[in-house]
Amino acid sequence: ATITQSYQERASLPKTSPVASYLLRLIAAKQTNLCVSADVSTTRELLQLAEEVGDSICMLKTHADIINDFGPRTIEGLKEIAAKKHFLVFEDRKFGDIGSTVQKQFTAGPLQIVRWANIINAHIFPGPAIITALSQAAHDAVKPPLLRSLLILAEMSSAGNLMTGSYTEQCVVEARKNPEFVMGFIAQRTLNEQPGDNFITMTPGVQIGATGDGLGQQYNTPEKVIGEAGTDIIIVGRGVYGAQDKRAKAEEYRVRAWKAYEGRIGA
Ligand code: 5FU
């Protein structure tokens, strides 16, 4: 059903996580289902990219551990630009350890992810306690714990990855058990298969005019993933930050992904 429902309609469906509702409304208001992946190596580049593409995105994805000078200045800068330009911040940390360890990785260390990332993601190969551990850590660290939510990695974009079949199915089963905290998936197609499912699917491995990067990455177009595979948000890294004019490139991706969405819902 979510294939033909608008973002706006889905924002107020029952059992939708608070962050998912907020994000769906933001997407509808800004008319953007684009997330830019800011895989740059300095705070200066990160904040400059956020400023440049901020008006065209619903979300900025980070890998905080590749920023050479990550620190309080990075966090404050990101928060300020996100508030000003109205987008959420997603740290692509891919947690994958026992509950006790991921709680520490989420809240402590030099990155203190829980302080600044609205959205995080995790693998479920260690078992479902990873979900409850991250949820508990978010509740303990952020008062009120409103804007904290988890994406489960259900499928990956890279060639030969092992996240298929029953593994992917189990991700959906665990998500359905935790609808308050789990907002959706990283996947290559929508996984909303049962009536009542309203998970948000975010899809990396999107670039126009490329099929791969020679290191396993595989690319699809916005039309393929949003229009045909029924996912909700495209995640674009090098396709945007690798361009000379990043602002214009982000707009190009935004328009293409938005048209693919409108075509799919029959708007
Ligand atoms: F979970 C995943 C995945 O399945 N594929 C990915 O490419 C995450 N990614 C991330 O999206 C990856 O770590 C990069 O940060 C980004 C894709 O970057 P690109 O430059 O668009 O290939």
UniProtKB/TrEMBL annotation:
Gene Ontology BP terms: 'de novo' pyrimidine nucleobase biosynthetic process; 'de novo' UMP biosynthetic process
GO MF terms held by the record: orotidine-5'-phosphate decarboxylase activity
Keywords for this protein: Decarboxylase, Lyase, Pyrimidine biosynthesis
EC number: 4.1.1.23
Annotated Gene Ontology cellular component terms: cytosol
Catalysed reactions, semicolon-separated: orotidine 5'-phosphate + H(+) = UMP + CO2
Region forming the signal peptide: none
Domain Orotidine 5'-phosphate decarboxylase stretches: 33-253
Listed InterPro entries: Aldolase_TIM, OMPdecase, OMPdecase_AS, OMPdeCOase_dom, RibuloseP-bd_barrel
Enzyme class, UniProt record, top EC level: lyase
Protein name: Orotidine 5'-phosphate decarboxylase
Organism: Aureobasidium pullulans EXF-150
